[in-house]
Specification:
This protein is α+β, with helices and mostly antiparallel strands. The chain has a single domain, classed as Jelly Rolls (Sandwich). It is built from 9 helices and 8 strands. The strands form 2 sheets. The chain has a 4-stranded antiparallel sheet. The protein has a 4-stranded antiparallel sheet with strand order 2-7-4-5. It comes from Sphingobacterium paludis. Pfam families: cNMP_binding.
């Protein structure tokens, strides 16, 4: 897999880059491979990277005091994942980031992202676009949780991301929706 083409295509959805600019940008990204169930981020540890998914799927989640898992995000191909609070504030992780499947990612250190933003206006624009898109998605998710019943949330999720159904185990989809596995099975039978 040519990770540079995937990354360049992703960035150039919003900004144009000359070849030498992209080569410089790509030099900050470190390709890594992980296996299913590998942990990229653990609560209580420092967070040094954000991850751009080339292949596979990651999940970002928290486990509450009652040991219930709450999934905040699935990150599939060309999505990003991290514990952004810990990354940006140089604190300890409060979230887990695990591999739902075998995954190939690009790692970008926080200080390298900041350096790219300082040096290249195009990258500052790209990362602003990406952050804004993430904020909009988060708002949509919160509004859906507040306004829709579980059946509607499931239908909305499957309509927006039909590939999740085959990529992600059903108990994780249930945890994302905040329902039991049995409830999810009832949704799927309709």
């Amino acid at each position: 897999m040519d990770w540079k083409n995937i990354l360049r295509s992703h960035i150039e959805r919003k900004v144009d880059l000359a070849d030498e600019q992209f080569d410089y940008i790509a030099s900050f990204f470190k390709p890594m491979s992980f296996r299913k169930k590998d942990k990229l981020i653990r609560p209580g540890e420092p967070v040094h990277f954000e991850y751009f998914v080339l292949n596979g799927c990651l999940s970002t989640y928290v486990i509450n005091d009652q040991q219930k898992t709450h999934i905040l995000q699935f990150a599939m191909r060309t999505w990003w994942a991290s514990d952004y609070n810990a990354l940006y504030n140089q604190g300890q992780a409060s979230l887990h980031v695990d591999c739902v499947s075998d995954a190939e990612v690009l790692c970008l250190a926080n200080e390298d992202r900041e350096k790219l933003c300082r040096e290249l206006h195009s990258m500052e624009s790209f990362f602003r676009w990406r952050s804004n898109g993430g904020y909009v998605s988060l708002q949509r998710r919160i509004l859906s949780l507040l306004n829709n019943d579980a059946q509607s949330r499931y239908e909305e999720l499957m309509q927006q991301y039909p590939e999740l159904y085959n990529l992600v185990p059903k108990h994780l989809i249930a945890a994302y929706l905040g329902v039991s596995r049995e409830t999810l099975s009832r949704f799927q039978s309709h």
